## 1
Amino acid sequence: MRGIRDARDMRALAGRTVLVTGGARRVGAAICRRLHRAGANVVIHYRTSRQAALRLQRGLEADRPRSAACVCADLLDHEALMTLVPAALSRFGRLDALVNNASSFYPTPLADITLKDWDDLVGTNLQAPLFLVQAARTELMRRRGAVVNIADVHAERPLDGYLVYSLAKAGLVALTRSLARELAPRVRVNAVAPGAIAWPLTGALADPKAQADIVRRTPLERIGSPEDIAAAVHFLLAEAPFVTGHVLAVDGGRSIVL
């Protein structure tokens, strides 16, 4: 059965091109690997993780030559952001899907919020996805493509102390549903809402006691993995042709107990 499933995965996205923002590390890298295994050509966006992006590209192209590319851009720089879609088209001649994965995440208690926090968190989590879809719209419409936004379970149940992040992800969920209507019937737009996947290195959630409490209160009693998110993205791109405007929680049941 595993061999049959792997063969089907290899055909699912064959010949298609997918741009993944924040694709060099962690969840983004897992998404790139999963979609590449399904046959896609992958454009790996990064901002500062150049070496990680190049290592990932080399690894993917060892399996299938000329099937991956790296592109650098600061998503808060609108002119730089506008180079991503042309770069994908220049390299592979087409763009079939966009995965808006790149994200800033850190606490912003109300009393401490600055305009810099707002520009960073809203810029990466909401503004960049909007303008990237706008830039990719014509090509995605031509290809009857798809968009997957990486949201968060805290988009609908805000995380204490993370006010700007939570509202930015809430905006991303609203953007997902709005774009699903705006771009129908030619482009599907969905989101994946992760729960606890990879612990942050700083902030309250870096505390082992806080982490243990989250695991204890999660129905499946564990955190997820980047591969869990990658599998959900693969499903929405390759196996869900009648799904649009949907937010798929991949959180071990955490959202039902928050």
## 2
Amino acid sequence: MALDVSHAGLTAPDCEQLVGALERARALTLELVAHLDDEQLERVHSPIMSPLVWDLGHIAAYEDLWMAHRVGGLELLREDLASVYDAFETPRAVRGEIEVLDARAVREYMSAVRERTIGVLASGAGEGTIAELVVRHELQHGETMRQTLAIAGLLADGEGMLDALEGVQEWCDVPGGAFPMGSSAEGFAYDNERPRHERETQAFRIARLPVSNEEWLQFAGEGGYARREWWSEEGWAWKLENDVGADPGISSGNPRAAACHVSCYEADAFARSRSARLPSETEWEKAATLGADGAGVLAGRGQVWEWTRSTFEAYPGFVAFPYREYSEVFFGERYRVLRGGSWATDARVASPRFRNWDLAQRRQIFAGVRLACAAA
């Protein structure tokens, strides 16, 4: 597809910073899989996740497409791999069945692509936005790969062990009124975060902390997975079909840490059991950015993604950039918005205005819940 990329040129300091960011992301990626052997990289660990070796190839192919080809004007390094590593042409269900680069070859591919990228940046081509997109894309795949590793029981020692939340659970009052939602026009932001626009909310209350493991185990002990009245029709059907109970990590984790691997259906049922609800994403962002310092009232952010009750929709005036498939094709009733970031989300990505999304039944993501309710 065509892309209008500025060629105003990068300064030497700009280039140095972007190369540093790219190299940091690559070091994190390689460190993530350093303890795995080739068979573990190439195996299908879950039908809903890619083989890890596919993720590595996809990271490289994406970088080559956007930096070397579309910014630098070079031919693709491996045009024969373009469809193999295209996330839409090759959905997750078939990635373990097709021929992809093996562990050795994919590392060579990643290294060769990176050399081309650095050459493009050194030439001064582009203006940094696409390079930043490539950096964050690789960082986000680091979290996706950690989801696969968690399913397979292959996380590195210490990863995913959440600490106790600090302080006590309590309700925070958020006043009604308008606030600016979304990212400003300056700096980098994803297309679905823009344009910034005014949103109005009624006064509401939101929990200071996410729901903890001990709170979740209390819900389960009260018959939370058996009491039909606490579940939506869709959620109950999903629970029965999949024979769902609390994720094992909830009972084995720190009792005061945030409950993790919770689907939106479960989050909604928990909220109903406490005469509460999930916040809308508008309420969540307002609470997260409330106050002159922008610090917000939400403590404990960053342990787990937090489900909202909002479906993933475009903001008024939305413009797809740099391609429709990043956000636009996911808009609609199927996907719910998550906010806040998890322990596996890089700080470069996890701003209070970043919008994540997934299907309501998904539990492989590092997601939990924070409650909301009407003002007292």
